[in-house]
Amino acid sequence: MFPEEVLEHVFSFLNSHTDRNTASLVCKSWYEMERWCRKRVFIGNCYAVNPRVVIRRFPEVKSVELKGKPHFADFNLVPEGWGGYVYPWIVEIARAYPWLEEIRLKRMVVTDECLEIVAKSFRNFRVLVLESCEGFSTDGLAAVAANCRNLRVLDLRECEVEELSGHWLSHFPDSFTSLESLNMACLGSEVSFSALERLVARSPNLKTLRLNRTVPIEKLSTLLQRAPQLVDFGTGAYSAEIRQDVYSRLADAFSRSKNLKSLSGFWDVTPAYLPAIYSVCSQLTSLNLSYAATRSPDLTKIVSQCYNLQRLVVLDYIEDTGLNTVSMSCKDLRELVVFPSDPFVGEVDVLLTEQGLVSVSQGCSKLQSVLYFCHQMSNSALISISKNRPNLTCFRLCIIEPRVPDYVTHEPLDVGFGSIVENCKQLTRLSMSGLLTDRVFEYIGTHAKNLDMLSIAFAGDSDLGLHHVLSGCDSLRKLEIRDCPFGDKALLANASKLEKMRSLWMSSCLVSFGACKLLGQKMPGLNVEVIDERENVNSLPEYVPVEKVYIYRTVSGQRFDTPDFVRIMGKDKDDLFSDKGLKVAVLFCSNFGTFRPCCCTRSRSL
Amino acid sequence: MTSASSMESIFQKNAGLTERNYLGLSDCSSVDSSAVSGISDVKRNNLNLKATELRLGLPGSQSPERDPDADLASSESLDEKPLFPLLPSKDGICSGSQKIFVSGNKRGFSDTIDEGKWMFGSSGTDSDTSNVNVKISPGAQPAMIKDATSKVAPQEKTHATFGTNLNKVNASNPPAAKAQVVGWPPVRSFRKNILATNSKTNDEVDGKPGPGALFVKVSMDGAPYLRKVDLRSYTTYQQLSSALEKMFSCFTLGQCGSQGAPGRESLSESKLRDLLHGSEYVLTYEDKDGDWMLVGDVPWDMFIGSCKRLKIMKGSDAIGLAPRAMEKSKNRN
Description:
Chain A: It comes from Helianthus annuus. Chain A is α/β, with parallel strands linked by helices and about 600 residues long. Chain A is built from 21 helices and 23 strands.
């Protein structure tokens, strides 16, 4: 038996959550030792556990990471008011962890009150990362700016912020010099440029600066000159009348930014200004041009110089020719993301096809992660890709029109995706599209043994498809399905699998109320949430399919902050949605916006 | 216990039934399985049903033998008024959930366009079509599925609510030119209109531009005031020009695009080009680069992506535009 100090020292080398979790299962003393020295807690589903339980087990935490809404909330499939409130967590950890340093939240509802509590409760608070969060305003940001004396990171990724004013930035006191990373790209309001400039000037450790759209291109050179140590820079709107002096200053400033490795921003691009970045292209490891609505020649010229690029995010304007250039020039590429420029257009006037992806898969031997939107695909292209790149770990393909078959043979794309899962043995994430039958799921169940997350839409023929996935994918933790003919049988037959997964989302499928109720009754370790906004939902018979169901494992039982269109099945005596007699549980929820009670609890027998 | 064989029979029925399409499965296996027996036979041969036989059990139980108490889809529920009835009954109520989707046969894309939006799984909520429950399946035309669909007539609505909702929705929704499915493609909202937001003028920003309005100013030589039009409310040049003609007809003495006939005719794309040859007015636009171009040269979607404002010019003023416009669009393509 090792003395405690030795164990503690050994554990300090364990950084991943899974390693720590495994170590804590070895024996009681390891469990005890580990829990006292765990500094970072990651909770993938905020409803899977109670904050108090977490705090009781891990008393010395310095960093908390939480995720709230299901992934499909990004695409407006989760109605407003569903949940994901961070307030109860903030209240508890403010009380329990006065020395907390980091909070990272994803898809959660964060109110100004939460931010105020954060700002005032943690003396040594350093890192705030809010990704895809909503519910707060610039006032909350002002509170953080004013009070967090040791803040290093303020990172707002794709949040929906109520913009009351741009004045929040000016709340950073003059004595505040510790800033290392500022990402305000998602904000719409204009901040005081002089306040921004002074902030940058007094932050010698600033490595990441992502501006928002309102910062004009003429001002970029000023900021770049103030921060030659910048590694990650996001421009504002990259457009102006073409003026030689502005251009020269900008090009000069870029050429002096010897540490720059990552560029983003580029809204409203005026193509004539793009060459200003040429001098840094060969340094770049990450480039995000996905807001630059500029055509292929301009984009190709840039990427052809990015020899060290590892991550590229672009619009389909790059076209097959541009991707061909990528395949020849960017030999270190690890991740490729191609977004659609106009996803709702019926006609296709952009020349991006499956060929672009095939060439990148051929030329870029380190390519691991793909997110690709296009209009056509073929089995042979998919097979080529899988054979070229068996090292793929993340493959997400979105053919924009649902249920489109192989455009050459008119067959389903089963064989193509089957080849992907068969050849890419390390695949952990897969999103599929196009015409797919149950057969593709058979392939997936047979081969995709490392698959962690699977996204399915408009696919399959019967319950057999879902059954293949649930019974075959040993590592599956997150499954999200929409508009597929999967129903009760496969779900109920694989009930025990659901407890080994983080969550399952099914919307517009064929899962009935009755099955959800049965599942909820039989599986106390699962919350089966039916999300259904129909007016007459209480009078629908049990065989009727639900609109949406979200099933997740939990040790904290059902939650009590649900709106009236969410029903946790199988837990209550009477299973009606209750829209009358709602009680507002102040303890667990907080208001969202001005006049909006966002949470309720139905009366239940205790 | 016969659950083993009954489970297997569920699979066989499923394999046969759902092979056709999964929406609006008119009916149960009693009806016309011959149409798809070919497909289902192949399916059955390819799948080892025994190997994929459903196993039911409580969490933690590893035994392949079934725990009768734990069966969630067990005969216990079958003996009661079934949640999951196995056998089709005469009145059209068939196994499990297939009867529900009465109206949603997969259709070819053009059919969907013509009918506009239909309800998938129905919704009791209002006709706010931007809201969650209105979905369309504008799938491509997989040949075999379409054939199967055409063989089976769409069925009576077994549930009253769905019927009324469907009728209500069809009546209240005008046909959409391009059917849109909620949350598809899976692109976050702020990415959806890069094209639009890059071309709009500052005045016309709405708070959150959806794939919604795209307002541009329209001016006309000699007219005392401007108008605004929403380019996204049109889908062809013809629609746009007739709308503009109506809007500005009080100002025109002559007509756009005709030789002597009263100016109520609608314009076609080719007529717009013909305007150069001496007619009264032509329609021009200023694009993102600030150049004035003739309307009608480029595909519609490219046009709305680059148009910042419109101007109805006198034909004689516009003659110089034509060659440049042609060149420019050639360079683009």
